[in-house]
Amino acid sequence: MDLFQSKAEEGGINPVALIDHYVWIHYNQNKILRQVDFLEPLPAFQAIDLGALAAGALTAKTNITNFDMYADEFAQFRIWTLDNVQLILYLPAGVPAGQLKTFQVPLSKFNALRNPSLNLTEICVWEDNRPAVIAINGSGIALSAVRIMAMGHHYHTVPVSATDPVNAKIKAGIQPVTHVWCSRAVFAAGNRT
Amino acid sequence: METGYDLITGFRVPGPVTNIAAAGTANAAVVFAAGGGAFLGTRSYKLKKLAIRDRGTGGTFVHIGTGVAGAFADLIPAIKTVNNFDIEVDQNTLNSAEAFASITAYPEAVGGSSVDVQVEVEEIGG
Known about the structure:
The complex is a heterodimer of chains A (193) and B (126).
Chain A: E1 22-27, E2 30-49, E3 62-63, E4 73-81, E5 86-90, E6 107-108, H1 111-114, E7 123-126, E8 132-136, E9 147-159, H2 166-171, E10 177-181
Chain B: H1 4-8, E1 11-14, E2 18-20, E3 29-32, E4 44-54, E5 61-66, E6 73-74, E7 79-80, E8 86-89, E9 98-99, E10 103-107, E11 115-124
Antiparallel strand pairs in B: 1-11, 2-11, 3-10, 4-8, 4-9, 4-11, 5-6, 5-7, 5-10
């Protein structure tokens, strides 16, 4: 099964895993083996409206609470904005997403035009370890709203015992596992060499 | 097939034909009502088409904007009507000004008559 995160396909978003599939959840320095027992698609919805934003202004860092998942759940979202802002994303709230050595790559409304499948905007969220966002109004026009939209899937998972024989199969490369990155901590400054 | 353009555009919705028989901002009438609801995200409405019929005002200016009375704010410059004529402004000519509230309109004068106003908007949001 050819499923992986940030998969590019026109006009849709593939799940990263199906029912009974195994996933490695990467969250901060943790790597958690889980098995998916249910998934549900999430059609496009408004994740957050950061409200009015004056020309040249930026918002405070704001948690996207609508992305909170129940325990044992993770979600896969592609995100875009309807308003003329740039978004600086954190995943989770303390860790910059898209952080290069001298620049943090923002999202903007142009992502939807230049990357129509939005696969480059894909993030995953583990339980309630929500992302946060800062919006920048780089235009000369005040905005009445800053709407961030999302769509994707959410997944319920069950733990996999360390004594489960599947562990050996995974280690031997016989049993496929999808890596699910629910944190950019591996790219955090302290982890760079 | 969904494209990037589909993700940032909305649906076209025409408002009702609204007869306005009183002049001035205090009499600004809703020509497109903003929606609402518990699960609704923030909706906005971009002007795409405008139709005005002058029923015999002698010619006036019709303002399209948001709010009523002192809170009225123009979305576009006022449109000049010609007595007993109609005007249609399409999306190639009309600025797609965006409103986050009900769209209202008023004529500067009615001359004992009235105007009919209809807008078509692109409704954007979740």
